[in-house]
Design brief:
Length: 156
C-alpha cells in the first residue's frame, strides 16, 4: 500500500482537535464522484481515497519548520467535494471559478486549493491553481513530504 504509514490516523469520527485524522470512504462514494466528473481520479489520488479516505494532515513525523502550519487547513477533500467544486455546485465556490481540468484535491489555507489535472501528461502531479507552479511531481510524493518532512512545505 502506498499510504500505509497513515493508517494509524484513520478514525471513525473526526476529532475536535486540529491534528491529523482521516475517515474511510465507501467505494461507492468514489465511483459516484467520478461519475459526476465524467472521468476517473488519477491513479495515486484514487489509491489514497481507497486506502485512507479523506481528512486533515496537520502534524507529521517532523516538527514544522516555522509557524506557517498554524494557519493551514491541510484538508484532503472528500471526492464528492472535489466534484461539487469542479462543477461549481459547492456551498462556497472558488472565485474565480475553477477551470474544467482543475480538480481541487487538497485545501491548504482556507479556500486555497492545490489541484491535479487528470487530462495532463502527469495526471498525478500537484499544482497550484492555473498550474502556476508544480508543487510536486506526483501525489504520493506530496503526501509523503507533508507527513515526513514539513506539513507546510508547499506554502514556501
Amino acid at each position: 500500500m502506498l499510504y500505509d504509514y497513515l493508517l494509524p490516523y484513520v478514525v471513525d469520527l473526526a476529532p475536535s482537535n486540529k491534528g491529523t485524522w482521516f475517515r474511510k470512504l465507501e467505494h461507492s462514494r468514489i465511483l459516484e464522484a467520478e461519475a459526476r466528473l465524467g472521468y476517473t481520479f488519477p491513479r495515486q489520488v484514487r489509491s489514497f481515497y481507497e486506502e485512507i479516505g479523506f481528512g486533515c494532515l496537520r502534524s507529521g513525523k517532523a516538527d514544522p519548520l516555522d509557524e506557517r502550519w498554524r494557519g493551514i487547513a491541510n484538508r484532503f477533500l472528500h471526492p464528492m467535494t472535489v466534484a461539487a467544486l469542479n462543477l461549481g455546485e459547492a456551498e462556497i465556490n472558488p472565485d474565480p471559478p475553477l477551470r474544467k481540468n482543475e480538480w481541487p484535491i487538497f485545501e491548504g489555507a482556507e479556500g486555497d486549493y492545490l489541484i491535479v489535472d487528470p487530462f495532463a501528461g502527469e495526471p498525478n502531479a500537484i499544482y497550484t491553481r492555473y498550474k502556476i507552479r508544480k508543487v510536486e511531481t506526483d501525489f504520493a510524493a506530496f503526501v509523503r513530504r507533508l507527513f515526513h518532512e514539513d506539513v507546510a512545505f508547499y506554502s514556501r
